[in-house]
Amino acid sequence: MDYYAAKWEILVDGELVLAGESAGKTVWRDGADGIWDGHGIVMEARGDFSTLKGRKTYETGPVIKGSNPPVSFSGTGMFLIY
């Protein structure tokens, strides 16, 4: 298991509309690909998204190791603001 802390941003047409921080863990299944899981908070919210400032976030998804970890780590997943 590995732990992480991250800053994230969401841009629309090149302009920042949401930004925040999150932290969580990646669980590796017997040396194979893993699953990441974290929680965070929206720190900046602009325009139509301004009401989301201070809301909590949840994120999760698969982590694919690739042929040259950690450089080759990749993945997609769910990102939820609640």
In words, what does this structure look like?
- The protein has a 5-stranded antiparallel β-sheet, with no helix packed on it.
- It is built from no helices and 5 strands.
- It has one domain (2-81).
- With 82 residues, it is mainly beta.
- Helices cover 0% and strands 60% of the residues.
- The protein has strands spanning 2-12, 15-28, 34-45, 56-63, 78-81.
How is the topology of this model organized?
Elements: E1 2-12, E2 15-28, E3 34-45, E4 56-63, E5 78-81
Number of helices: 0
Q: pLDDT below 50 for ≥5 consecutive residues: which ranges?
A: none
Biggest sheet: strands, sense, closure?
5 strands, antiparallel
Q: Could you spell the SSE succession in H and E letters? A: EEEEE
Q: What is the number of strand segments? A: 5
Main attributes?
mainly beta; elongated; 5 strands; five-stranded antiparallel beta sheet; 82 residues; 60% strand; single chain
In brief, what are we looking at here?
The chain is 0% helix and 60% strand. By secondary structure, the protein is mostly beta strands.
